[in-house]
């Protein structure tokens, strides 16, 4: 089947089931907001080329873990993809075209490359929305193999996983049952949503409110009614002087989550938006 020459339409993505959201193409759609001239076919062909080069090696192996080891060696040793520790918070590490071009990224974006290549080779690699640091997992005969794409696909054992999760659980070390829940595969939609949240956070830190609003808007296109998308787009609109949009989004946020921990702060922002002059645009 020929690959599509264009990217999905944002308005159509909300109608798809979570795992029917095309992972690579939707990540490239996010990148196109920043790079309007981005050619998606270039990156589809890159994955296809990687897969064609690696297929004989992978198909010669029977064991899923061995197949995954071959994929990791190719991606991280031969091609040189690596975690960008020096510029971890550079937004380029969340735009997949930049990650392909520079062969540098953060855990989530490297996982997207790793998953796209593995799936092209019929190795069903899943993403894991682990707290703090995105991981990938592969079902094997004796359980689940969990790997860290930021560290060259290194496997991560249960004890280390519990240790990593503890600071994000209020200091509580997860038991085996909770760890199993945390390691549940993330849907394609959830993975792209995490990418958008990462970008939104980076842009908010730099007070780049138009880009905060854009990321929040894309969240709402992908999953209408997303609470943090409504709140953050409304707050960004307020800082940009779009008072009417701010009131609409923040009001809807409160109607959906009246008991939210930040409800009082959001109410104050609505009052501020009501006092602000309406910006014509």
TrEMBL record:
Residues 43-197 form the Protein SirB1 N-terminal domain. Gene3D superfamilies: Tetratricopeptide repeat domain. Pfam families: TPR_9, Transglut_core2. Belongs to the UPF0162 family. This is SirB1 family protein.
